[in-house]
Structure prediction request, 911 residues.
Amino acid sequence: MARLTAMVRYLMTRLAMAIPTLFVIVTITFFGMRAAPGGPFDQEQTLPPEILSNLQTAYGLGLPVWTQYLRYLDSVAHGDFGPSFKYKDFTVSELIVQGLPVTLTLGATAILVALVVGISIGVLAAVHQHSMLDHAAISLAVLGVAIPSFVVLPALALLFGIHLHWLPVAGWEPGQPKFLIMPVVALALPPLAYIARLTRGSMLEVLHSPFIRTARAKGLPLRTVIVRHALRPALVPVASFLGSAVAAIMTGSLVVESIAGLPGIGRYLVQGAVNRDYTLVLGMVIIYSALLIFMGLLIDIVYAWLDPRIRAS
Amino acid sequence: MQDATARFFANRIAVAALAVALGIVLLSIVGPWFNPNRPDTLDWLHVAARPGTPNAHWFGTDRLGRDLFVRTLEGTRVSLAVGLLASTVSVLIGVGYGAIAGYIGGRTDLIMMRIIEILSGLPLIFFVIFVTVIVGRSVYVLFACIGAVAWLTMARIVRGQTLSIRQQEFVEAAVACGATPSRIILRHVVPNLLGTVVVYATLSVPQIILLESFLSFLGLGIQVPSASLGSLVADGAGELQAAPWILLVPGSFLAVLLLCLNLCGDGLRDALDVREG
Amino acid sequence: MAAALVVENLSVRFTQRRVSVEAVRDVSLDVERGECLALVGESGSGKTQLFQAAMGLLPENASTRGRAMFDGVDLIGAEDAALNRVRGAKIAMIFQDPMTALTPQLRIGTQLAEVLVQHAGSSWRDAWAAAGRMLERMLIDEPQRRLRQYPHELSGGMRQRVVIGMGLMCGPSLLIADEPTASLDVTVQVQIMELLRTSRRELGMALILISHDLGVVAGSADRIAVMYAGRIVESGAAGEVLRRPLHPYTAELIRCIPHLKGPLPRRMATLTGQPPRPQEVHAACAFAPRCVRAEARCRAERPQLKAHDAGFAACHFPLQP
Prediction:
């Protein structure tokens, strides 16, 4: 019971630290964008000056920067990220609500696939060391890490979409998983390969540990030895890697969403950067940062579950 | 050193990868001499042409009629240049930072590592996007952003190694002889780091090329009319159905290059028997 | 008395990158039911690999020749399923270094209970209760609290008791203890040896004590076997071997045991020289280079294990006729 309370307290501390971090990120992003030369309407050359100044007033761009900042903080606290400067019919919040589920589905599926498939391959390769399976797994690991997702996805689309017609090349319909299959595969492949490699190496080491010899001497079948005794210690390096994996998947989703035409928030982020859409970029940065922080907390929990010695500290 | 070399050359995969990588580098430098086309010439007669088309379009052309052979090789050169340049800079900064942090230790070390932790926490892409929005798209932004991030891993590893080297006896002996910290770092710490640094420097080249390709693909890096493998792949993405080779040619070059560089790095790591501290 | 375990002509060879090393050379040994056999030898003598081979716990690069008969079944080369029915249930093997012998992320209770769940088909609830009773027998205080703890929360001595307890859960007919006290404090060593003796009496179990320290096992053994360079060089009843050793090596080992009574010696007795490394192959007597009694014949011809009045010895010039 005491252990549980300590754990909860630790998580609360981390959460408490996360809020100022988020705050700092928002502030930096806000002032950074304001500091940039040029504004969101610079590319609209066809607007006469009066309309331009009306627009600026409407979006509050005429006010002193500090006032804008405080107004922004206030509205964010109420869940209002302001209107998108580019997509004039939508507020940023609406765009987030539209796009977030797609991105979350894509990302969550990718990380699950990477973990489940990667760990399985790694364990099997370690248990059957030097077999064909092991060699195949190592090859996959090397290839997967090296080849970028924006090459894999078009290659997959070419083969399975255009030539074989098994899967749609791009696009999205809600509730239709077939549009997600290739994007998830392309997105999950690099972390999957690395996880497989990590798991294999780590499992090989663990299998030679004294406590595994004890478990085998007790007459436990191999499957029990692996799952009950070897798996959790072997997965510790994978947990360390998890943070990077999530970041990689977040990054990769930008590319994958673009190529596959998936209407997620990644697409908006890139477009926002190109169009200098302040509020859109700000909103996206906040969302992504919040996601990252949340993932960090989850990873801490995973760590503690894997090794009770960590729970104590 | 001799058995490391022997071990490396005994590793057939690594040697093959090295050969292929060198081949690509060589091709990218020498190849264009054999082809009359130039990277920015627009051949209106052969737009989006298949590989093997006349006019020496051995790899075909893109949708503006530019020859893919020459353009891909140029992209390869650009990507390689970015990779090597940024890698060198990141190695220098990383080694310096890490060695100092590891050697001085104590609070300085703690602060320096905290900085690294914070910087590592931000995914590069968002940082780049952020800076791009402020400053606009340019090659310099690309370099600055890659440079800002690439040295982190090297610094961390070098610091770890430095810490363990520092605790060894010959360093104590040098201090006892009255050597200054900078002398110790240069004469004793750095030579022992050589193996680790070489391995991670080699591995960082494909990582940087990957990063640059990513950014160029998104349109945040190398801009038209110059090409990098990333931007070439982006060009090809739109024509996938009609003219897949526009993507596949630079894509394959990129994939093979990255693969071979990674395999070389792994081979070096096995040969020098380097482990992460 | 019927034998519990009969080892016949067992040899173990390790191969790494085309280099072969014979760790165990043609060893034959048997252990009677209920008796305590001490197997003594320096590191590199092959004493651990001998029984690891019998239990099927050697790494993949090891090849084993010979037989190890238990309950009419040859354990060498047996299938995993057959081995698993024996291991932990009928023969238990425990190792040195309790600090690393237990799985870090599992509770003590789980590691004890799983033996019963696996071999006796108990429910986890019943097995957990049995584990608690075993901790009591192992003289561990607060057994219910200990059951829920993790290995890192226990001291070395307690962990070794848990390890012994794990071995005894199914009431095996043979317990093989490999250096059970090597990493422990001297006071704890005594307690552990006492625990092993008591458990053996209560269960009527055969016990094999593997050790490099003759002094530790001398008090507990019925029979003593001495190994050198992968071979048995002497074996016999414990009292006989200790009072009238046949092989010069045994005599040296006895000489090295510090005595509590009598005047303090000016110098501690030690064995001169080093044991041969496993890679070295001998056509002749392996002990000859260190033996004060060695003669030409010792360096030319390997002595075979021969029967004497009191026991067996492999020596051309044994100490007793």
